[in-house]
Amino acid sequence: MMTRKNAFYAQSGGVTAVINASACGVIQTARAHRDKIGKVYAGRNGIIGALTEDLIDTTRESAAAIALLRSTPSGAFGSARFKLKSLEANKREYERLIEVFQAHDIGYFFYNGGGDSADTCYKVSQLSQAMGYPIQAIHVPKTVDNDLPITDCCPGFGSVAKYVAVSALEASFDVRSMAKTSTKVFVLEVMGRHAGWIAAAGGLVQDHGIPVVVLFPEIEFDQARFIARVDALVKAHGYCTVVVSEGCHYPDGKFLAEQGTRDAFGHAQLGGAAPVVADMVKQALGHKFHWAVADYLQRAARHIASRTDVKQAYELGKAAVQLALKGHNAVMPTIDRVSDAPYKYKIGMAPLAKVANVEKFMPRNFITEDGFGITERCKRYLMPLIQGEDYPKYRNGLPVYATLKNLPVARKLAPFELK
């Protein structure tokens, strides 16, 4: 007989328009199996909540409030850019996690995040065995960058792709209408440190007759070739749109947008590729320009979320619980594409040993030969992921989003200082 244990759920890294849909999937599925799963605790501000024993009791939220998470953007329990060091460098943090789990009778660990959280999830499953308190650790995939391996796509990406494609299209219509006497070049900067999946979505506007240049992290930036391409498009169409990934870089590896600082994960702090590129155009061609950085808007835009993305985010949260109940450990539920048209997929499973610290980049055959656009193969991949609308309910002109009570669980252990 399976011993009834509590579950712990946490959100990690940058949040998305649909990460709460995964949370909804986890919590609702766990509630449907109360004979096997007791309470679901959430970490306040992600994994930090586990380390500091700052747990949230989700059982004190109504069924209606949890259901509303499905249409609420951002992280309802708080997330954090906090990467646990290696086991060798700081074993005390991992041991602390196990101590907190043991103190609160937690046997299931659902970690909702990207590559770094997959690594943490995997290490927790390994160490828990060694410490004699087994934890079933299941990683719930999430990343707007779409760079997790094995899974066909990552929850969060489809909605960002939809937002970027729509925004690039609408802004291009604006530029086109004013190009004769005003702005001729519009530059939109999007997320994507090493992988150009989000930037690729901007390339979808080319099917609407929009002259667009896409700058990918996978293609080394050549300023002369870029300026020549923009010049040719403006001469042919009167204007053009540039979609640049924040991870676009020179042949020596230096990012166009590098600020010389580092984030909590040790990654170069990016932001500012758009003004750099726009200034290049101004200096070389003299065209009037406008630029914009999608920034948080692209990943928070639940009002224009992809229905496919919302559905998959919920399904993977649900699948994570189902995998745990079947006895699986150190795995991640995946989206396995069956066909492009009609779009069909099934839920699969990948071992975390093959997911942790592995990035999935844009295939070269998804990028045009000149390096400035997307191929038909890429379009066939992208189009199903942005399909459908899943509008939230509106009241007085604004969407209705959930704000949970997030009531704390009583602490049982001594305080723990983060280093």
Structure described in brief:
The protein is α/β, with parallel strands linked by helices and 419 residues long. The protein is built from 12 helices and 13 strands.
Largest sheet: 5 strands, mixed
Number of domains: 2
The helix/strand class is alpha/beta
**Helix and strand element order:** EHEHEHHEHEHEHEHEHEHHEEHEE
Count of discrete alpha- or pi-helical segments spanning 4 or more residues: 12
Question: Globular, elongated, flat, extended or rod-shaped: what is the shape?
Answer: elongated
Helix content: 25-40%
CATH architecture of the largest domain: 3-Layer(aba) Sandwich
* Assembly status: single chain
As residue ranges, the low-confidence spans are: 260-265
Round the Cα radius of gyration to an integer and report it: 22 Å
Between the first and last Cα atoms, what is the distance in angstroms?
40 Å
CATH class type of the largest domain: Alpha Beta
How do the strands line up in the largest sheet? 3-2-1-4-5
How is the CATH topology of the largest domain named? Rossmann fold
Mean pLDDT: 94
* Percentage of residues in strands: 15-25%
Count the E strands: 13
Detailed description of the structure:
- This protein has helices spanning 19-31, 47-51, 63-68, 91-103, 115-130, 157-178, 197-202, 223-237, 273-285, 295-300, 307-325, 376-382; strands at residues 5-11, 37-43, 55-57, 106-113, 136-141, 185-190, 212-215, 240-245, 289-293, 331-339, 344-351, 394-395, 398-399.
- It is α/β, with parallel strands linked by helices.
- It has two domains: 5-145 and 304-358 and 389-399, Rossmann fold; 157-302, Rossmann fold (3-Layer(aba) Sandwich), CATH 3.40.50.
- The protein has a five-stranded mixed sheet, with helices on both faces. A four-stranded parallel sheet has the order 7-8-6-9, with helices on both faces. A two-stranded antiparallel ribbon has the order 10-11.
- Helix 1 runs parallel beside helix 11 (307-325), helix 4 crosses helix 5 and helix 8 (223-237) packs across helix 9 (273-285).
- The longest helix has 22 residues, at 157-178.
- Mean pLDDT is 94; it is low at 260-265.
